[in-house]
């Protein structure tokens, strides 16, 4: 189900950077917490959690520990100050007593909610058997069990060779290495607005914000970029027909393969089936089909990065299923193990048979505890009808957000996404190219970060994304209708207040 609402036109020249939310938002909320705690009052005694047990940290423990926050690298951004001590389902608790509805799921990770009992138990049990059965020493049971559970849910039966890593970025690296070595070609084509991670190869194919690569050059060479069918990127309005966006992007791909990187030098095209850090934009099926056709014609490998969109997030196990397109390589992470560090590269045995043993691997790759947790995730997704819940809650979420858009047609440009990977984009004079847009220029600036901050003040964690004014909704996949409604009401109030403030 692909949703896009398009009433207010918004022209933009793409490419300028305005991704300043982490700085502005973090420093402001940090100041608020440090100064007076007027939004998040500290409690003076032990905090009794909703489960009736005492949190370990007292406010004085917490404030003395918080001092060590100064010793944490400045390279990390943070949307709240404070210490999260526990989490259950759709909520997290801070040491100071704040209980927050979590619409971030730790950036799309805890799809089954925090500390899902089955997942936590599987990990705890595994801890008592073996924690580190290193993948170059021997197999371990959870690794092989996980393959057994994943095989039947692959978007294509050709995906039958697995390699587990720790983070999404590491799996992106491995996928790029695999593509280069099995094709004997060097170049990689990625998408404008793409995010694939912060390690060197992943950073080189990331095109969502310059903060990820600024000052870190030289980057990995041999990377080329085409636009993604997102109206902003082509300087179009939100109501531009999808077919026009798709044909523009495929035309640019044709030109690229004729003018810049010969097909015989091109190893792979890497694409997120839902552009994440680029603004939560589902790839139209016709675009993915077009990429597949080009790959087939030239022997190029198609890599689907499902790190954020996978594991039921979009209402199917994998977002690429909406198009029916077969990827040659698929990358998974995040929701796979519900918070335990685990990622994976999945491809065809025919391709991995060309690898030299030992050319891939890593000390912690495919950790036994993380694999045991992932086995429990896959089981829970089946047993608890997670896809059904995602699709039911998604319909409610889109309905609520479209209603909010209808209340503020001048301020909200677009509601889009798939399943429970959904975004609201605000018109704003802070957006790249906004000076060309009469409507955007009239309304307040930095709408997304201001709205997100108000949501946090009202007890809900929520994130922005992209260089545009976009708030993203990535709640737990098993969220109840009541908590979803509570979250959208908090968002509605926050939007109203920000608009009132101008
Ligand atoms: C689509 C996509 N690919 C790759 C990554 C990188 O994953 P990690 O942060 O686990 O390295 C992310 C992280 O947000 C992502 O969204």
Automatic annotation (TrEMBL):
Keywords: Aminotransferase, Pyridoxal phosphate, Transferase
Cofactor: pyridoxal 5'-phosphate
Entries under PROSITE patterns matching the protein: AA_TRANSFER_CLASS_3
Pfam families: Aminotran_3
GO molecular function (one): identical protein binding
Similarity annotation: Belongs to the class-III pyridoxal-phosphate-dependent aminotransferase family.
Name of this chain's protein: Acetylornithine aminotransferase
Organism annotation: Mycena alexandri
